[in-house]
Design a protein that fits this description.
With 426 residues, this protein is of the alpha/beta class. It contains 11 helices and 25 strands. The protein folds into 2 domains: 212 residues, FAD/NAD(P)-binding domain (3-Layer(bba) Sandwich), CATH 3.50.50; 126 residues, FAD/NAD(P)-binding domain (3-Layer(bba) Sandwich), CATH 3.50.50.60. Keywords: FAD, Flavoprotein, Membrane, NAD, Oxidoreductase, Transmembrane, Transmembrane helix.
Length: 426
């Protein structure tokens, strides 16, 4: 196998890059890390001194928060032109190994060629993946998910093909496992996506006693009402014991006949966090300081879903959400560049939190506070807000100048953004 080694062991002559920031991942946190780092470098006039390299399988931003929707294959945003115009380099590949002791990563490209790339600062922004517990029999073989673009496209193809099968209880029934945020959004959207199936039955299964357990009582009541109005059946208080091609068996002993089991029960940080010798939380996220540095390891930052970062300065940590990844990315990119440039670092903070939950044809729900216990809006108005977020707000600008301007790590907080959003949707 051909192995390439890319080294910068001596300071190069003037005009050649002196430092390299390597960013693993081109999700929301990775993209905004790159743009924010470039913004600071450009503002100091040191563009010929610091290279930014993003490593990811493809130069696209997958709109992961939207993968519960239909037309999954269209839910990507191209990055190649944006990166090129912004002066950000891109390496198509997958990072297999991180060597923090010698500041290098091993990368495998699609052709199988391997290379070793050295860095001065590393930003781990490789996101998260759905948890697939080994104790659930048949889970990996017989379930669908919306964790990635490929898996969402696979699910969509399956749903569309159901109409070609003979009608039966198992064909007409779709079971969503996991009554949290992702499970609720997908479940609420399924009645519309299954309009081509006569007598379609959608069932939401959760092992807790409440649907949406992370929400307060009032939002949970609204969620329950919305699912009821949409004709969704909810079965709570029992987990999944096993899955097979024709059904799901719950821990209570109940069996549901279905050809379509969709797993949404939780996520965990990228396995790459385990290659960094530093403490991690229960979700595998690396603990970081206020500047998003992995303190025990020099030169390494973690961001997005890979970081366990204190958000409010007290006891609330950033969530595995687009809302937090966007800001975490801006701060990690800025600070990685700031360390190399000798510029003061900026602390990460997102003290306020507002959550917008899509409820399909019923509408949507905006819940405020870290406990998500206050309803700010619901129904059609909240739906317009959710559509604006999904279809406009989370997309980076196509124009490099606008994207770099938008990469300022000093942004309005969630409450201020929400007030601006109200004016847009009213």
């Amino acid at each position: 196998m051909l192995v390439l080694v890319v080294k910068f062991t001596q300071l190069p002559p003037f005009g050649i890059m002196s430092f390299k920031i390597v960013i693993i991942g081109a999700g929301f946190a990775g993209v905004w890390s790159a743009l924010s780092a470039k913004r600071l470098i450009k503002s100091t006039g040191k563009e010929n001194k610091v290279e930014i390299l993003v490593i990811s399988p493809k130069p696209v931003l997958v709109m992961r928060p939207r993968l519960y929707e239909s037309k999954a294959s269209s839910l990507i945003h191209p990055l190649e032109t944006l990166f090129k115009e912004a002066g950000i380099n891109f390496c198509p590949g997958v990072v297999k190994t991180i060597h923090t002791e010698r500041r290098a990563v091993e990368v495998q490209c699609a052709s199988g060629v391997e290379s070793t790339i050295e860095y001065d600062r590393l930003i781990l922004a490789a996101g998260s993946s759905v948890i697939q517990p080994q104790h659930v029999g048949g889970l990996r073989q017989h379930t669908y998910d919306i964790d990635s673009l490929d898996s969402a496209v696979k699910l969509e193809s399956h749903l569309e093909a159901l109409a070609s099968l003979p009608a039966s209880p198992s064909r007409d029934t779709v079971v969503v496992c996991g009554a949290g945020f992702t499970g609720i959004e997908l479940t609420a959207e399924l009645p519309r996506r299954l309009a081509h199936i006569a007598n379609a039955r959608v069932i939401l299964v959760g092992n807790t006693d409440e649907v949406g357990p992370s929400f307060g009582s009032s939002p949970r009541s609204t969620i329950t009402q919305a699912l009821n109005d949409l004709g969704v059946e909810v079965k709570l208080g029992a987990g999944v014991k096993a899955v097979d091609p024709e059904g799901v068996t719950l821990t209570s002993g109940v069996r549901i006949q279905t050809k379509t089991t969709i797993w949404t029960a939780g996520v965990q940080a990228t396995p790459l966090t385990q290659q960094v010798a530093a403490p991690r939380d229960a979700l595998g996220r690396l603990y970081v300081d206020q500047y998003l540095r992995v303190s025990p390891v020099d030169g390494v930052f973690a961001t997005g879903d890979a970081a366990c970062a204190l958000a409010d300065g007290k006891n609330q940590h950033a969530l595995m959400s687009c809302q937090h990844a966007l800001q975490l990315g801006r701060v990690s990119g800025y600070n990685a560049a700031a360390e190399l440039l000798g510029v003061p670092l900026m602390g990460y903070t997102q003290a306020a939190y507002n959550c917008c939950l899509d409820l399909g044809a019923w509408g949507a729900l905006v819940a405020a506070g870290w406990d998500r216990d206050i309803i700010k809006m619901s129904g059609d108005t909240a739906k317009r807000a959710k559509c604006y977020i999904n279809q406009k707000l989370i997309y980076p600008p196509d124009n490099a100048h606008e994207a770099l301007a938008s990469a300022d790590p000093v942004l309005p907080d969630s409450d201020q953004l929400f007030e601006q959003l109200i004016h847009v949707v009213d």
